[in-house]
Amino acid sequence: MGGRAWLFDMVVKSFVFKIPGRKKFQPFGTRTPNVPDYRNPPHYKGDLNQVLEYFAGTLGKSDDYIVRITEIAGRSAACIFITTVCDHKAVEECLRSLQQHQFPRLSPKDVSQYLTEKVLPSSNSQYVSNLYTLRESITSGDLVLLVDGVVPAIVRKRQIAHTLHHSITGPRLST
To answer: Where are the domains positioned within the chain?
Structure first.
């Protein structure tokens, strides 16, 4: 019995490892998996549809991934965030200020700078053009604002809530 099992084992191994066009120790066949190179990241070039497709491919499987489409000075824009991680008050303030602001008739030269200085209520915004950094910002709870045709995306960072120290005289900021 031992001889037959050994012979059967050799026939199966020789059949499996001698497939034409396949190397002996190549577990994925002739195709290797598509692993992105972190040293050569993709950059945001101002095309909103391309970036939304990229994020839908990387983040779109999550139920918490939200994209709010709006219009800013005649251009389409998107606010991207994850509901379970982000600050909902900050998202509501940002969307409200974008919808209620009266934009000038002529589009300003630097739309992203105009938005951070005059429209968005907080001062903790950054300009980002790397798609990996944008994706990491979204997953860490930041709000990302993308405007079609505007190259640097605006990332509104989360603010740390100040703890209050309650005393007899009332709540005060702790130091």
So the answer is: 48-156
